[in-house]
Amino acid sequence: MDEKKVMLSGIQPSGDLHLGNYLGAIKNWAERAEQFECYYFMADLHTITVRQNPADLRRRTLEQLAQYIACGLDPEKNTLFIQSHVPAHAELGWVLNCYTMFGELSRMTQFKDKAAKHKDNINGGLFTYPSLMAADILLYQPDYVPVGEDQKQHCELTRDVAQRFNHIYGDVFKIPEPYIPKAGARVMGLTTPDTKMSKSIPEGCVFLMEKPEDIQRKFKRAVTDSDTERCVRFDPAAKPGVANLMNIYSAVTGKTMPEIEAEFAGQGYGKFKPAVGEAVIEILRPIREEAGRILQDKAYLESVYKAGAEKASYVANKTLRKVYKKIGFVAR
Ligand code: TRP
Predict the structure, then answer these.
(1) What is the pTM of this model?
(2) Can you identify the CATH homologous superfamily of domain 202-292?
(3) Which residues pair with 207 in a beta bridge?
(4) What are the sequence ranges of the domains in the chain?
């Protein structure tokens, strides 16, 4: 049998998941496991580069794990773990710090952005974040790393560092390729159809765990457009708010744009907006209920992240041992 290609991604447990995350990405992850050997981890080591409330961080890490499982990431088919449970990440992170240049780290746009945003806490971890991320990736010798636009630069750096290391010591690391995921729906904010749905604008953001009545209220208040036509027609340039709602409706019902236009022909927005809200509520209901159930079942959740960490450690430690040997550390 052919070995499956390996894929890995880290998720920062720094905010609640929302409809944009789900329709844009997570929804497509469940089926990936058929084709790839997949590792996903909660990147808790990364979140402390900005100050976190300890109780919130702990709660969100577990909540997020529960939500991913509820969205269809099957822990039997994927390796799901918590980054800090696999010490090899921190260990290789230190090593790679010594193979990453000050100049390279200085050029990272995420560092520049975050440093500007958190002027009172420009710590060393924020600066060396990309070498920890390189360690996260290279430990598992993945073929692919699914990347969003904002993480491309870090993946490029990972490749550069890996190549630099291999150049000195021989083939230690597989050089990973970025993986551009099959395009999911691009969901815009309900109140700001010109920007991506984001937790920083909560009035326009539908969270996976939100109560149905709150979801419906947000859809009823969604921005449509100011033209006088007031009809459901797909025209992203002239009617971005309507187009966004149509995209969402299409993603959750599978209906095409002409079908949606026909369904609401001659009805204005009064029927359309609550219908989209209702469809979203129905899609999210089983996810919210399942995530709630999983969160209550502490023993189950613990068994998932323990098994995940064990499997991940096995693979990660193999790479780490090889690295330590190559650079001249005495074997344990
Ligand atoms: N830096 C990523 C983000 O902010 C999270 C992350 C950490 C990651 N380590 C990773 C993503 C390794 C992919 C691979 O979204």
Answers:
(1) 0.91
(2) Tyrosyl-Transfer RNA Synthetase (1.10.240.10)
(3) 18
(4) 5-185+297-327, 202-292
